Amino acid sequence: MIASVVMIAVASAALWFGGIAFWLLAVVISLFMMAEWSDLQKVTPREKRLAQYGLSVPLAVMAPASLVLEVHNFFSLGLLAGAAFFVAIVTRHSALGKGVIYCGLPVLALVFLRRQDAGLLFAFWALALVWATDIGAFFAGRTIGGPKLAPRLSPNKTWAGLIGGVVAASALAVILHVYHGLPWRMTIGTPLLAVLAQGGDLYESFLKRRAGVKDSGNILPGHGGVLDRLDGVVPVAPVAALLVVVPYLYR
User: Fold this and answer.
1) Which runs of consecutive H residues, i.e. helices, occur in the chain?
2) Per-residue pLDDT tens over the stretch 95-109
3) CA 76 to chain CA centroid, nearest Å
4) CA–CA distance, 170 with 236 (Å, rounded to integer)
5) What is the three-class DSSP state of 220?
6) CA 143, 149, 151: angle at the middle one, nearest 5?
7) Is residue 164's pLDDT more than 60?
8) Cα-flanking dihedrals φ and ψ of residue 223, to 5°?
9) Backbone angles phi and psi of 158, in degrees to 5
């Protein structure tokens, strides 16, 4: 409980302040994610450090304009792809290259969302819908139970939990739309993002099962690793950013 309160407080403060505070927190989290991803792939400490160094380059370019003078989102995306290719070639582990994308792309997406005119709302929506999905899935799964969603990957997840998570996230989106002006495209897209959040959770369960571990790490007391807490954010954040970009593609 103490760890949960601390994580919520730190994340909320960084989200509220935005700018350097939000970027710094995202960078630190991303590097921890890369370390845990590397451990799941069972690579050497040297290869893990190299992967973190490779990831740190595009993360640095994602810094706020006050630090880098001008923001280049698409350049950051290209540099992220280049870093993934570099890490995969140098370490001869394609999985580490994939990890650079897995740990870096959500950061770019969240930083991009926070930089918008309604950035606080957009970034909060992207994160909070994942939280709402987890909470709704937990209570619906415990209360209703029923058929398992993917028993080989995560024996505790049920179809009732998935539906409960989608309903909770959708309700949150409607509230944000009515009271804070969340655009319709994001409100309507929230159920799909809730399903993606659960998919991200299952994918991380697959990674842990393949590695033969219960948690991705032990840095968070009572919560396991950073990947365990952010597995739903990884697929949701990039798609959320795409929903923001869609109107500009038709101008």
Assistant:
1) 2-17, 19-40, 45-61, 65-68, 73-91, 94-114, 119-144, 159-180, 184-211, 226-230, 233-249
2) 999 999 999 999 999
3) 17
4) 14
5) strand
6) 105
7) yes
8) -125, -5
9) -125, 165
Q: At what angle do helices 19-40 and 94-114 cross, to 10 degrees?
A: 160
Contact 128, 100 (CB under 8 A): no
pTM score of the predicted model? 0.91
- Specify the amino acid at residue 229: R
The tokens 């998919």 sit on which residue?
A: 199
Beta-carbon contacts of residue 115 (< 8 Å; ≥ 6 apart): 18, 64, 71
In DSSP terms, which residues pair with 38 in a beta bridge? none
Residue whose tokens read 């058929």: 147
Q: What is the pLDDT of residues 213-224, one digit of tens each?
A: 888 887 776 667
134 closest CA partner among 216, 196, 189: 196
- Residue 42: pLDDT band (50, 70, 90) is very high
* Residue percentage of the chain with pLDDT more than 70: 93
Integer Cα distance of 75 and 72 in angstroms = 5
| Chain center to CA of 51 | 18
Residue count of the chain, please give it: 251
Q: Note the pLDDT of residue 200.
A: 95
- The amino acid present at 206, given as its one-letter code, is F
Q: What is the largest CA-CA distance in the chain?
A: 54
Tokens of 8: 């919520």
Tell me the C-alpha distance between 155 and 119, whole Å: 37
